[in-house]
Design brief:
The chain has 21 helices and 19 strands. By secondary structure, the protein is of the alpha/beta class.
């Protein structure tokens, strides 16, 4: 077999697809991993026989796709260790093999167990598939059919070169090519039965419906309304809460679901998770989800605000009587990753992982971020949020994963933007998106990058979530401001009397907006309260 020739390892399938081309990514939509293995193994074996380097990326809990096949290099990955490290390892492996590489992946559906989000699965595919194409390699992927959101299937269909459905009926496997880029034949997109060494088109109208009928079309209303992995987890939790109210559910099940949702929304740091499980219950978590835009974690600053409120509520019940109603929204950290991928910033950002090159490309990355576009579904959700706020001023606050976390405050390193939120509906959305871009771009600032480098944080995941809050206060004629604001510290270094206990803390109070409590001015009538 000539080394330059790519093959599925099944000559009959090669004929259906009119041969494979360098750079092809093949995605199999499956009902069973066993069916995927039937196609993965001959492809890998043929590549080994042709003298190519074959890499098997092993990350799922399902049985291995290939066993006892000499010549295959198996790389065991840990998706729970973080999206960026996962992507970086695969990228470096593909780069090492270039056009001699054949890359076999476990079922992508299993990644949802650690990433919780179809959006992140789409980001993964949009980063890896084009790179395989660029180097002229060959890659095989699979994902469960009718399990994910329609948005993910649309992303994958628009990115891959070859997309094939696999069906099984009466122990016969059928393939249905849905997309074969740059190739065509009169019968290519028909259902084909795998019979011996051949794949024969199924032409009988009496047979085709029996095979395809059980599978709903993803693009029709029944398919479009199917929730992805993220929403499905929260919908199941809402049902569990409803069952609990009727006394029809085990408390252990509620606890398990609460733990899972806290990992999805609040933190994956075990110390913070322990604190969250002490003070937040299932109702609190679902309240966060109801005010969530996108998917992913809500970030350190948002978590700090929620935990402070929850601790006060638990330890000082009267707090609920004096605090304003909670009125924040959260833009999930996955939206940040999606924005970087969509606007061509990802690989520029990867240079920041190396202490020797962490400032290279930062200027260009900031430029692309400040001029980028958002996915239509995110823009629509943000418009709905602005409709809720009306014309009240809002503050758009950075809330990265490391911000206000254990050991690192990141104080002043990332931007927060005040939005007056005035003007037409379109103008208010335009201003808000500009504020969001500003916060995203601040992750590439020299100040923030040097801070991360000094603390050995360049190599870890640093996603930017965003906290959106209504500014407290009221309108007074044409002006809007709070009656008072301030900042509190747990230790008072200004103990001006022996009667003052420094451990009791200190509050700095100002009239109007709280920025004056931080950015000090001599004419602000500031009051220091021990």
């Amino acid at each position: 077999m000539a080394e330059h020739r790519l093959t599925t390892g099944l000559p009959g399938l090669d004929r259906v697809l009119k041969t494979l081309l360098p750079g092809d990514n093949i995605v199999w939509q499956i009902a069973s991993v066993d069916d995927y293995a039937r196609f993965a193994e001959p492809c890998a074996k043929a590549a080994v026989d042709a003298g190519r380097r074959v890499f098997y990326f092993r990350f799922a809990k399902h049985p291995p796709l290939v066993t006892d096949l000499p010549g295959i290099e198996t790389l065991t990955l840990r998706p729970e260790s973080g999206f960026e490290e996962f992507i970086r390892t695969i990228h470096e492996t593909i780069d090492s093999a270039r056009n001699r590489g054949v890359f076999l992946f476990d079922s992508l559906t299993d990644l949802v167990a650690d990433w919780y989000s179809d959006r992140m699965l789409g980001n993964f595919f949009r980063l890896i598939c084009p790179y395989v194409y660029d180097v002229g390699g060959l890659a095989c992927f699979a994902l469960l059919r009718n399990f994910h959101s329609q948005a993910l299937y649309t992303t994958i269909a628009g990115t891959t070169q070859i997309l094939i459905d696999i069906y099984r009926r009466h122990d016969t496997l059928y393939i249905h090519p849905l997309k074969v880029q740059q190739r065509h034949s009169p019968r290519m997109y028909m259902l084909h039965a795998w019979e011996g060494d051949a794949f024969r088109p199924v032409t009988a109208s009496s047979t085709i419906p029996a095979i395809l009928k059980p599978v709903p079309l993803a693009g029709l209303p029944a398919g479009r309304s199917r929730p992805g992995a993220w929403d499905r987890a929260f919908l199941e939790a809402e049902q569990a809460r409803h069952d609990r109210e009727k006394g029809a559910i085990d408390p252990d099940r509620i606890a398990a679901q609460t733990h899972r949702l806290l990992r999805m929304l609040v933190s994956r740091d075990e110390r913070m998770l322990g604190l969250a499980e002490t003070y937040l219950d299932l109702d609190d978590v679902l309240t966060i989800w109801h005010r969530m835009i996108g998917t992913g974690l809500i970030g350190g600053k948002a978590v700090g605000m929620l935990m402070a409120r929850a601790i006060l509520r638990r330890r000082w019940p009267r707090c609920g009587e004096v605090l304003e109603e909670h009125d924040s929204f959260y833009i999930g950290s996955d939206v940040f990753y999606s924005y970087l991928v969509q606007n061509g910033c990802w690989w520029l950002r990867e240079k920041q992982k190396d202490p020797r090159t962490f400032l290279e490309g930062a200027t260009e990355a900031r430029r692309r971020i400040l001029t980028g576009t958002f996915p239509p579904d995110v823009s629509q959700d943000l418009m709905d949020m602005l409709d809720y706020f009306g014309q009240c001023p809002i503050i758009v606050r950075s809330s990265s994963l490391l911000e206000d976390a254990f050991g690192n405050s990141f104080a002043g390193k990332y931007e927060s933007v005040f939005c007056v939120n005035q003007g037409s509906r379109d103008k208010r959305l335009e201003d808000f998106l500009a504020a969001l871009r500003t916060i995203y771009a601040s992750t590439m600032s020299e100040n923030a990058l040097r801070y991360r480098a000094e603390r050995g944080l360049l190599g870890g995941d640093e996603q930017m979530a965003v906290l959106v809050q209504r500014v407290s206060g009221a309108f007074y004629d044409r002006l809007y401001y709070p009656q008072a604001a301030g900042v509190a510290f747990s230790f008072n270094p200004f103990a001006w009397s022996d009667k003052i206990d420094p451990e009791a803390g200190v509050v700095r109070l100002v009239f109007g907006l709280g920025t004056r409590a931080v950015d000090r001015h001599d004419d602000d009538y500031t009051h220091i309260v021990a």
